[in-house]
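Person: I have long wanted to understand how a fold can be written as tokens. Underneath my words sits a plain record pairing an amino acid chain with its backbone structure tokens. Those tokens are not coordinates but codes from a learned vocabulary of shapes. I should like you to check that the lines agree and flag anything odd. The protein I mean follows directly.
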Amino acid sequence: MKKTLWMVLGLLVISSMILTACGGAAPAEEAPAAEAPAEEMPAEEMPAEEAPVEEVMDKGPVTYHGYSTTDIPTLDPQLGEDTVSIVYIENLFVHLTNYDLDTAEVVPEAATSWTISEDGLTYTFTIRTDIPWVKHNPVTLETTQEVDADGNPRFVTAYDFEYGIKRACDPNTGSYYSSVIAPSIVGCEDVLYYEDPAAVPAELVDAIGVTAVDDATLVIELPFNAAFFLSQTPMWTIAASPSWAIEEHGDNWIEAGNIVTNGRYVLNEWVHGVRRQMLRNPLMPADMHGGGNIEKFVTNVVPDTTTGYALWLNGEVEVSGIPDAELEAHLAEFPDETEQIPDLAVFYIAFRETKAPFDNVHVRRAFSAAFDRATFVETVRQGQGLPMKHFAPPGIFGAPAIDEVGVGFDPEFAAAELALAGYPNCEGFPQISLLGYSGQSTLNWIEFAQANWSENLGCSPDLITIEQQSFSELLATTKLDDEEAPNMWTLGWGPDYADENNWVGDVLHCDNTSERIRRECNEIDDLIVQARESSDPAERVALYAQIEEAFFGADGEFPFAPLFVRIAFQATHSWLDYTPALFGGDQWYTWNIDTAAQPMMAE
């Protein structure tokens, strides 16, 4: 299923307003999944003696072949913080609720229904109790249901969700996304930010507002009427987790052969940095199958997109990014196998606010305003995006109009700000470091930035030390202390739910950025909390415009330089039929392959 950019963005504008403004509506209705069995297509009848003899080649299970340029950082639902991890977690684990791919509405998944109290502070979820916990044996290829110490089969219960959510609130878990869900759950912040993580009192953990009343009833208490809370419930961070497997294997519980899951697929192979393979879970309830026909996902790790694209040209993978150097030729040759995917991910260059010279706000403003976003999108990105001068993109509730808030590209303003910082025409400016993702496309981005800073600020490219790392390495490096961390780095943020709180609240609030940007708390954070806790949609919209201006306006703090929202071209073979997910991970269990059109592929 292929959608145009503006159809998707228009859908998101509508759906995000519904999700935000109607949090206290009637209980969600249970919507059983509808499966469409494949039609039998009889061949034309022929006399037996005249029928041609053909060798029927068995293609085996319906298989999706893909590639990645990085290993999976984690398969732990509470630890996932990147798109690679999150897409695997989406398919290995069921979540409390899910997103409808066509409407972006929150729909049942493990929870069949829910009710919301009149004051909007208590959510009661009814959990289905027929989803088995399973373990897959990569040697025998058998998937079996987990049993407890007494030999009783294990099914997902409300207690597993209570465990997973409280685990996310535990500071010792080390979950980045804990700070995203913590403000929405009574007591979670008290535990997450406790002064001594190694000695959190048991009574504080018990006071977290998540209670399994019985196997089928989960109650979550909110500290305020968070209009966006229901849109957070499909998130992986609050998924059920297998306490017994985690206790037995520790950090290694996610490895192939150890991992216990409950989703539509099981992990059959994971050779770190080389290859991974997923198989359909044969024990999944039939109504949760998802409608897709792909039984096996095989992903090989390759050095770069250029290598992956060569595999696509050879028919060896279903989908590929398109290298910048190949894009013009590709669009001319494969117009019917090209999509432009709006994933609403906003990319930026972040500044470490506690490390000189970016501890000076005038330097941060200068480096942001000296970047020509429109030319960058047109030339380097070859039209694959929209210039951004504030953070939240179109389609997110509360996001200002794309041209209303922020400085954007203003070379005169940039030069003046650098002079105010004490570096007129970059005189006396120190050596600084910029860390980027690995790959040529990111290097093109960095070189464009260097040229802009040279032309508009007078800062020689020699002043900027460039390093590139894999995504997981970059995430780790940017968490280091000032002495070892870079001055700047490339990063992006994609939506987890359709609300501005997921942007300025979950990324830029001072409690959420201590590991990377390291902002000090100020009055902007008070506005973020006010907007988060308001139940008036109009007030929230006005507050978010004020917050975005406080970050990215002429007098803004500029924790980073917002650059563009991605709308990337993608090469997709015609035999694959799918709808990309805008929130969370892609739902592979809804994808279909036309096996008659798909060529035979060696694995």
Residues 169 and 216 are 22 Å apart (CA to CA).
